[in-house]
Amino acid sequence: MEEETETRVFLSNEQHQEEEEEEEEEPSLPRSMVISLYLGYFLARWGARTWEFSVALYMIYLWPNSLFLTAMYGVVESGSATLFGPIVGQMIDGMSYVKVLRLWLVTQNLSFIVAGGAVVALLVVPDLKSQNFPVFATLVVLTNLSGAIGVLSTLAGTVLIERDWVVVMSEGHSPAVLTRMNSVIRGIDLSSKLLSPVITGLIISFVSLRASAITFAAWATITVWIEYWLFISVYNGVPAIVQSDERRSLRSSQSQAEETDSASSFYVPLLHEEESYRNTQSRSRILRILERISESSFVSAWRNYLNQEIVLPGVSLALLFFTVLRFPFYPLVLFVLALVSHRIHIVSSRYSFGTLMTATLEWKGIPTYIIGIGRGISAGVGLAATVLYPLMQSRISPLRTGVWSFWSQWTCLLVCVGSIWVEKEKIASYMLMAGVAASRLGLWMFDLAVIQQMQDLVPESDRCVVGGVQNSLQSALDLMANLLGIIVSNPKDFWMLTLISFATVSLAGILYTIHLYRIRKHLFHLEKIPLLNNFFAS
């Protein structure tokens, strides 16, 4: 398998120049279809990112003396993605593209409409918690469940577009086409994550919190039709997607036929009741339970993921979610919260911004606007990665781009580790912010590199399953990072979290480097270093 992978990687690199020369002769993708894909994805991601930001403000307002509701929603969302992510990936893999589109868009937007409506109902009666707690609790549970279902359906759409359609549309074209589409898709997502909180904050500040919930529900109601029209236009306008859908249907039919044959093969022994009875009695109940678990969709999806060639890069990427060395990708969120602070009674300003890193910076006396500037710089660096990645990938393979971008990120984080031993709090805080902001360039380039490797090396029949498991693993590690922040919640102990996070990032780098060496059989071209050139020549 390693030799086959190595051959595929090097073949891609050797053909790169030839494909660039023939690029003018290749049929170009219909521009209108590409634009429709981007617009539909933007509308879907904008709604998801708006809810991701707004829900924290709603929960803080509903229970101003505690972060319990906010934390509870975070656990429900991350937990549902962790548990059901692999199942979602396997489920959509066995469905036609049109069915997946309908399931994704209807479920996501209907869930957000219900969640928005529940929030409006909660906001209509400000004292509902004290007046009628059972109704209050029911609406909060409805908000949590509908929001979690919306996030799961969003996962289905993310896997479909990012891991499948983009690959199918770029087939038959040069690798630069896939790289460019990946970068644009990632840029759309990050831009939505950057700007949607600003719009939401302006609505809350100049109108009301209730108006923001109504606007969100109205957005979901209107855009679902536009999104479906755009995506169905792409489906009908790109023959490669229709052909891929036909192959999916064929694989699904063959799989069902195999299951039928398998079931019939088990039917003959069941005719012999005495023998079946003895076999059943000989098994322990625990063994039967273990067999059922091993045959479940969840375990089957994980088994599929672990058998892929890209399992080490996938685990490396997921490990980067187990860290506190990050700004939430809301560079203007502090500005938004400053606007709405007179409407939302935030008791603990240190912990209301969502991360322990922000809490630590405020505890050390860093002005809020400075933290906001740091987040803005971090966001700009992250977006710059979507521009730099295609340039770097055009000169070296995604595999090597991944290793260079990862260790550049790791190098920047050394500044964060060094800040632990700096005695002056202000200087240490600025070092922490600078290291995190600078590391975003390597982080997002590494993210794009791993995604492209998954697109290249994961078989078409496994893309959705692998994508679902990958998102599940990332959610699980993100949840663990949040739990770690709860356990070590004192800002004085942030140095412990810094070291744990850095160790986790280092482990991710080691795993990816092992993968690189296993494929290429070397890490560096030492003979190309001028000082060593004569040594290898002799």
TrEMBL record:
SUPFAM superfamilies noted in UniProt: MFS general substrate transporter
Region (Disordered): 1-28
GO MF term set: iron ion transmembrane transporter activity
Localization (cell): Membrane
Highest taxon, organism lineage: Eukaryota
Main location: membrane
InterPro entries linked: Ferroportin-1, MFS_trans_sf
Pfam families named among the record's database cross-references: FPN1
TM region positions: 55-76, 103-124, 136-161, 190-209, 216-235, 329-346, 366-391, 403-421, 427-450, 494-514
Designated name of the protein: Solute carrier family 40 member
Sorted UniProt keywords: Ion transport, Membrane, Transmembrane, Transmembrane helix, Transport
Annotated membrane topology: Multi-pass membrane protein
GO cellular component: membrane
Family: Belongs to the ferroportin (FP) (TC 2.A.100) family. SLC40A subfamily.
Biased composition (Acidic residues): 17-27
CDD domains attached to this UniProt entry: MFS_SLC40A1_like
Gene name tied to this protein: IREG2
The UniProt record lists the keyword Transcription regulation: no
Annotated function: May be involved in iron transport and iron homeostasis.
Keyword ATP-binding listed: no
